[in-house]
């Protein structure tokens, strides 16, 4: 019963859309009707600017961190902790408070991965920052992070294999949420950051 309550709490926490709240507060508009229509940090950057985008990135990341910390604090294994984080990601993507229309869950997934396995997340993060700086494609960096981090968890054996598998499934979910971005990348018309 405790784990069920933890999952429900993680989903409800994940459902809080900071990009929506901040944009509504500053522009009195729904971010899902502006820019790319995505309720996330990248669209916040395009619509409002750097400061609010950093705030959204950190707060959305925290949504992924808290359930993993909570599950670990309650002495659940790492697989259960990552699954708890996955519920926050699901909440972010399909938020109950906003008609189940949310973002792509990248920052929340980063939060889950960082707490679950810091070194693979750090290595992937550094590589992805360099990749985004070189290509200006945030979506490409996000996709690479979702592939590389779980792979490094397995290669470096930083967490049990079943936990890394759970992380891989989260990565697959994020890649699926980026399917339109992947299509645009392949066609060469994906929007670059700063343009």
From TrEMBL:
GO cellular component terms, alphabetically, are:
plasma membrane
Q: What is its pathway?
A: Lipid metabolism; phospholipid metabolism
What chemistry does it catalyse, as a reaction equation? an acyl phosphate + sn-glycerol 3-phosphate = a 1-acyl-sn-glycero-3-phosphate + phosphate
Q: Name one Pfam family in it.
A: G3P_acyltransf
What's the Enzyme Commission number for this chain? 2.3.1.275
| Gene Ontology terms, MF aspect | acyl-phosphate glycerol-3-phosphate acyltransferase activity
One Gene Ontology term of the biological-process aspect is: phospholipid biosynthetic process
The alphabetical list of record keywords is:
Acyltransferase, Cell membrane, Lipid biosynthesis, Lipid metabolism, Membrane, Phospholipid biosynthesis, Phospholipid metabolism, Transferase, Transmembrane, Transmembrane helix
Membrane-topology annotation of the record: Multi-pass membrane protein
Asked whether the UniProt record includes Transmembrane helix among its keywords, one would answer yes
* Chief location category: membrane
NCBIfam families in UniProt = glycerol-3-phosphate 1-O-acyltransferase PlsY
Matches recorded under PANTHER family: GLYCEROL-3-PHOSPHATE ACYLTRANSFERASE-RELATED, INNER MEMBRANE PROTEIN YGIH
| Homology family | Belongs to the PlsY family.
Q: What does this protein do?
A: Catalyzes the transfer of an acyl group from acyl-phosphate (acyl-PO(4)) to glycerol-3-phosphate (G3P) to form lysophosphatidic acid (LPA). This enzyme utilizes acyl-phosphate as fatty acyl donor, but not acyl-CoA or acyl-ACP.
Name of the molecule in the record: Glycerol-3-phosphate acyltransferase
Provenance organism: Fictibacillus marinisediminis
């Amino acid at each position: 019963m405790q784990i069920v309550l933890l999952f429900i709490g993680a989903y409800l926490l994940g459902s809080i859309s900071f990009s929506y709240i901040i944009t509504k507060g500053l522009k009195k508009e729904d971010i899902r009707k502006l820019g790319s229509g995505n309720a996330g940090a990248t669209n916040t950057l395009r619509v409002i600017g750097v400061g609010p985008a950093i705030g959204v990135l950190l707060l959305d990341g925290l949504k992924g961190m808290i359930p993993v910390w909570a599950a670990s604090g309650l002495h659940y294994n790492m697989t259960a902790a990552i699954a708890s984080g996955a519920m926050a990601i699901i909440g972010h993507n399909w938020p109950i408070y906003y008609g189940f229309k949310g973002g792509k869950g990248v920052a929340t997934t980063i939060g889950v991965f960082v707490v679950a396995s810091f070194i693979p997340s750090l290595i992937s993060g550094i590589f992805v920052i360099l990749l985004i700086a070189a290509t200006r494609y945030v979506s490409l960096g996000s996709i690479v992070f979702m592939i590389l981090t779980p792979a490094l968890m397995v290669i470096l054996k930083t967490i049990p294999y079943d936990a890394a598998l759970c992380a891989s499934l989260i990565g697959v979910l994020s890649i699926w949420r980026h399917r339109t971005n992947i299509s645009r990348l392949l066609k060469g018309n994906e929007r670059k950051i700063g343009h």
